[in-house]
């Protein structure tokens, strides 16, 4: 009799050791797969194989938290419940932090399962599993539930690490994209202040963040004419910077062969449409001045109107068209032409000058800006730009919410 008991105890011990060895092997295989950076689908498939063939679990649901909603990422056995029905089970389980039996549960969905297994990390619920058709009982039950919880926990940690790794890569890509965009934009912004007999230019560029969507340029066309442009490209990042670079090259190329601003703007519109498929647009003010004839031709394409100041008077230059890049064909296009008196100043700006946090509309508007230019229009371009920014800081008292670009041109 004693020999039979000893033999039975040895058999049970051997069975337990073999079971523990199998569990360790399963965990080892999962760990190796994680270290090899196997895909999520492969890890889930390995988990299902272990549960089905090693533990003979006939019904399984594995839900993981994502944006405060639980998504079922693994399911087999029985009639598959709709996603909202499964997600709703969490309301009955949220306060339970250790494996529990579900047979006889008041919720009909949960009562169809044998056990609930939660996965927590520092009191934060990460995932849970529902197990049904599970034949284990008696002394091995707690061991099996602990093993299942450990196995699922390893998978959840691996998935969390994959998520964090993807987020880090995305952040690094975004950072590099912004650095490239800054490099591109820095190549586009004129490096020197343009000064020569008969014309003086002052510019101020204040990006809201590292990279903005504003652009300006000023260049001589020939002995008698020069052209300037101020623009605002929709969007941010490298795609906006590349569009800006393409726009600058196109503008300078077209200005070298076309005398007509209307033709230049029409062709620029087609180029932007072709390059962006209507997903981005550009507002701009484009002007061409002939020092010999004293004629200014300009087009305002949906941009903040440039202010012309001369001898104590000022008015906005509004003629033009809508933004470019929004329509295959511009719905209208009116080119302005003005005879310019000596000592005339042009104050060009982007909408960031008007938009600030805690905007005080009583103290700052396009009408107030016009009044300010009238009161200070005899300053040098650089001094006027600084005076406008100082005025905003002291009167509006709000941080800009967009890029601010000022381009002030005085012609003698």
Characterization of the model:
This protein has 412 residues and is an alpha+beta fold. 42% of the residues lie in helices and 26% in strands. It has helices spanning 2-35, 40-54, 83-88, 90-93, 140-188, 237-257, 261-276, 366-376, 381-396, and strands at 59-66, 69-76, 100-101, 115-121, 124-132, 195-196, 199-206, 214-220, 225-233, 282-290, 295-301, 306-310, 313-317, 320-321, 336-339, 344-349, 404-411. Strands 6-7-17-16-12-13 form a six-stranded antiparallel sheet, with helices on one face. Strands 8, 9, 10, 11, 14 and 15 form a six-stranded mixed sheet that branches. A five-stranded antiparallel sheet has the order 2-1-5-4-3. Helix 1 packs parallel to helix 5 (140-188), helix 2 runs antiparallel to helix 5 and helix 5 (140-188) runs parallel beside helix 6 (237-257). The longest helix has 49 residues, at 140-188. The mean pLDDT is 86.
The pLDDT mean sits at 86
Order of helices and strands: HHEEHHEEEHEEEEHHEEEEEEEHHE
Largest sheet: 6 strands, antiparallel
Radius of gyration over C-alpha positions, nearest whole angstrom = 35 Å
What's the end-to-end separation, in Å? 121 Å
Strand content: 25-35%
Number of helices: 9
Q: How many strands in all?
A: 17
Name the shape in a single word.
elongated
Level of helix content?
Answer: 40-55%
Query: Which spans have pLDDT < 50 for at least 5 consecutive residues?
Result: none
């Amino acid at each position: 009799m004693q020999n039979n008991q000893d033999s039975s105890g040895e058999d049970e011990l051997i069975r337990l050791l073999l079971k523990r060895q199998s569990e360790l092997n399963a965990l080892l295989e999962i760990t190796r797969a994680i270290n090899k950076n196997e895909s999520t689908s492969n890890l889930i498939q390995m988990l299902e194989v272990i549960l089905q063939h090693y533990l003979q679990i006939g019904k399984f649901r594995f839900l993981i938290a994502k944006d405060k909603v639980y998504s079922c990422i693994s399911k087999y056995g029985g009639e598959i419940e709709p996603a909202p029905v499964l997600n709703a089970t969490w309301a009955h389980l949220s306060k339970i932090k250790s494996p529990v039996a579900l047979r006889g549960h008041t919720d009909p969905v949960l009562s169809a399962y044998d056990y609930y297994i939660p996965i927590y990390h520092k009191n934060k619920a990460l995932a849970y599993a529902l197990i049904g058709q599970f034949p284990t009982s008696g002394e091995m039950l707690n061991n099996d539930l602990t093993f299942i919880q450990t196995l699922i926990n390893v998978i959840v940690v691996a998935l969390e690490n994959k998520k964090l790794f993807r987020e880090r890569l995305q952040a690094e890509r975004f950072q590099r994209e912004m650095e490239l965009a800054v490099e591109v934009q820095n190549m586009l912004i004129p490096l020197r202040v343009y000064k020569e007999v008969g014309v003086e230019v002052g510019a101020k560029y204040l990006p809201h963040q590292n990279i903005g969507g504003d652009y300006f340029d000023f260049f001589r066309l020939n002995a008698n004419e020069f052209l300037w442009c101020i623009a605002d490209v929709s969007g941010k990042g490298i795609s906006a910077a590349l569009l800006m670079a393409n726009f600058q090259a196109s503008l300078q190329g077209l200005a070298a062969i076309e005398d007509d601003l209307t033709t230049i703007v029409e062709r620029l519109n087609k180029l932007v449409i072709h390059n962006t498929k209507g997903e981005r647009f550009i507002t701009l003010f484009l002007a061409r001045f002939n020092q010999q004839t004293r004629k200014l031709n300009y087009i305002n394409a949906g941009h903040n109107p440039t202010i012309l100041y001369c001898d104590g008077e000022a008015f906005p230059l509004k003629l033009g068209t809508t933004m470019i890049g929004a329509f295959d064909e511009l719905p209208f296009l009116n080119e302005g032409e003005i005879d310019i008196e000596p000592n005339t100043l042009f104050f060009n700006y982007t909408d960031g000058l008007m938009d600030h946090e805690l905007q005080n509309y009583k103290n700052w508007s396009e009408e107030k800006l016009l009044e300010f230019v009238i009161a200070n229009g005899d300053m040098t371009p650089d001094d006027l730009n600084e005076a406008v920014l100082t005025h905003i800081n002291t009167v509006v008292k709000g941080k800009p919410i967009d890029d601010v670009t000022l381009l002030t041109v005085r012609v003698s």
